[in-house]
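Hey,
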Amino acid sequence: MPRSSRLYRDERVVASYDGAMPYGLKRFQKAEALHFITFSCFHRLPLLDAPGARETVEAVLEPTRARHQARVYAYVLMPEHVHLLINEPPSILVAQFLKAVKQITSRKLRGQREKFWQERYFDRNVRGEDARSEVIRYIHRNPGSPAHELCALGWKPVKRGLVASPGDYQRSSFSHYATGVRGAVEIESEWTASLRGPLIAIGPR
């Protein structure tokens, strides 16, 4: 089996956490396939632990999302990697979207380093409401997932324990799902859809 296939297989397992998803999340999300993306800092070093680094990534991700009309369903910025659940932007490929995000953030954060990000990234298609909800739960739980939970689910034994609960971690979309308040990155949710208002059909003239 190719190395990439093994990595995709590992990414299929999703951890759950206590606490219900916000009302209406499953009803709102459509049937399109989403992309569960993971990309890492160069040599998996904790480069995003540097002061202001995660804020910089968010400050680049949001205008890039808006410019390409991408929908971000969930994200978390860990010290050495990023998890992102997005759709396929209408005008560019996911690979081009990620390249733009990584190039701009790299110019801002690389300093004297050879590189800031690893060139490769991992992409798994996510289809169906249950699968999307599970991935969103995993993304939000990532900062607090202890080693024994990940081992039981087939994940490599990497102990995080950065926070006691998902709500304590600031650089993720969890707060938006919990409160409806817009954060640094617009999240595609029922909260966001309600702010847009109803769609108006315009007939031919």
